[in-house]
Design goal:
Blueprint: E1 7-13, H1 35-46, E2 51-55, H2 69-74, H3 83-91, E3 98-104, H4 110-123, E4 128-133, H5 138-143, H6 152-170, E5 197-198, E6 203-204, E7 219-222, H7 227-236, E8 239-243, H8 248-264, E9 273-279, E10 281-282, H9 295-309, H10 332-343, H11 348-357, E11 365-366, H12 368-382, E12 386-390, H13 397-413, H14 426-431
Parallel strand pairs: 1-2, 1-12, 2-3, 3-4, 4-7, 7-8, 8-9, 9-12, 10-11
Antiparallel strand pairs: 5-6
Helix pairs in contact: 4-6, 6-7, 7-8, 12-13
Length: 433
């Protein structure tokens, strides 16, 4: 029986790699000059990954213990450079690998972002993607002159309108608008239209002043897990980034839910690719166990999730369930999951460990053949669409080598991932295997 084929993505940030892995802290060197990421991108392209994904944030966090110390000491949210400036650097060093960067609908003006990603798509030959995020950190809001973040529902309402406007701007140049004919006409004025967009939160006359890009507009990705976040993704996204959560049944339910939502927005569900975050650990230990954490490493985990939730978790007893009245101002869906685990008897320490390492419901710790077999079985049952490979420490050399040199070749041998690129643009590659 033929197995379900699926796509591959790789998750990282434009920041120091592997800092929490104490034996590998020199890995990446002076990462800010970009050369480490060029090498990474070339390695991923050599194994035909669909894309390299760069997350981002816009603050030095003070959420944990009301201090910047935890963030700066452990290199959690900072230092971190702007990933959008890195994308053309990577595009010049690769040929087919998709390049997805994160930018916030909360802080960017729509016209500026639309123009930026149109340019990035042209510079990369049609390989650009935008991870659409609604920022949640109060510290980031303060950096942009805001007193506080809007509530989660309003953030998504703003984002929804933002993307509607961005799409209108990307579509303001019709096909064939650039003619460059012998009569001396460069662009046909009849094919370039203002958008005259007026919304509740955003407005723009348009049109965009950039040349039309190869994809028309970048591939759009989104990772919201709340009900409102799922609607936003179902309406706009090409890619949805999701956790494997509690295993196969939960993954199937999420995929079915996203497909149903896509249909309600008049979309073909096949246009919506769900990439499952996969924390893999390739080891020849016959009884593999996930590594434990030193006190410093676990403090970094608590500090990271405090910022993610915009809630200082140091105020709670780690060896008790998270209180039911704990209120996250940031990412609410994961806090809901943490509370449910608490009601089921899981302590906050245990819950944060699962969030940091993944629950391994799919059996992603073991030999390369075991992990590959378990991945194939899971994707056969869930039905697709892709894996986003990541480690709990962004990715040290051991992790990257185990993925690029061991796991992916095994998956290629099994016939479930690509052995060549099917198109020249990121959107083409995502729609075909």
């Amino acid at each position: 029986m033929a197995h379900t084929r699926f796509h591959l993505g790789y998750f990282t940030k434009f920041g120091p790699p592997a800092w929490r892995a104490e034996t590998d802290r020199t890995f990446g060197g002076d990462w800010w000059d970009g050369r480490y990421f060029v090498d990474l991108a070339r390695r991923l392209e050599s194994r035909y990954f669909d894309f390299l994904f760069l997350e981002d944030s816009l603050n030095v966090s003070r959420t944990y213990k009301s201090s910047m110390e935890g963030d700066l000491r452990h290199a959690i949210y900072s230092p971190k450079n702007d990933p959008l400036q890195l994308l053309p650097f990577l595009a010049a060093s690769t040929e087919r690998l998709g390049l997805i960067g994160t930018a916030s609908t909360t802080f960017y003006p729509p016209y500026l972002l639309a123009r930026l990603f149109s340019t990035l798509d042209s510079l990369s030959g049609g390989r650009a993607g935008w991870n659409m995020v609604t920022s949640s950190e109060t510290d980031a809001a303060l950096n942009f002159g805001m007193e506080s973040m809007p509530p989660p529902i309003e953030r998504y309402d703003r984002a929804d309108e933002f993307v509607d406007l961005a799409k209108a701007l990307w579509g303001s140049w019709e096909a064939g608008a650039v003619v460059r004919d012998e009569a001396g006409m460069y662009s046909d004025p009849s094919k370039v239209k203002p958008v005259d967009f007026v919304g509740k939160y955003h407005r723009s006359r348009g049109p965009l002043n950039t040349a039309p890009s190869p994809q028309g507009y970048p591939v759009l990705g989104q990772a919201g897990a709340s009900d409102r976040g799922r609607d936003f993704a179902a309406k706009h996204a090409d890619l949805v980034f999701a956790l494997t959560g509690n295993g196969i049944e939960e993954m199937k339910a999420l995929r079915e839910d996203m497909h149903a939502r896509a249909r309600r927005f008049g979309r073909d569900p096949r246009e919506l690719k769900i990439f499952w975050a996969a924390f893999v650990n390739i080891t020849d230990d016959p009884t593999p166990k996930k590594r434990g954490f030193t006190d410093a490493q676990f403090e970094a985990i608590v500090a990271w999730w405090s910022t993610f939730f915009d809630l200082d978790l140091s105020q709670f007893d780690l060896d008790q369930p998270v209180p039911d009245d704990a209120s996250a101002l940031g990412h609410t869906s994961m806090m809901t999951q943490l509370k449910q685990w608490g009601r089921d008897g899981m302590t906050l320490r245990e819950g944060l460990t699962v969030l940091a390492l993944g629950s391994d419901e799919l059996g992603l710790v073991g030999s390369v053949k075991q992990v590959a077999s378990n991945i194939v079985a899971a994707m056969d049952e869930v039905g697709g669409d892709g894996l986003m490979l990541l480690s709990n420490d962004v990715g040290n050399e051991q992790f990257i080598s185990s993925v690029v040199d061991q796991l992916v070749p095994e998956l290629q041998e099994l016939g479930v991932v690509r052995t060549s690129y099917s198109g020249t643009t990121l959107r083409e590659n995502l729609r075909n295997l």
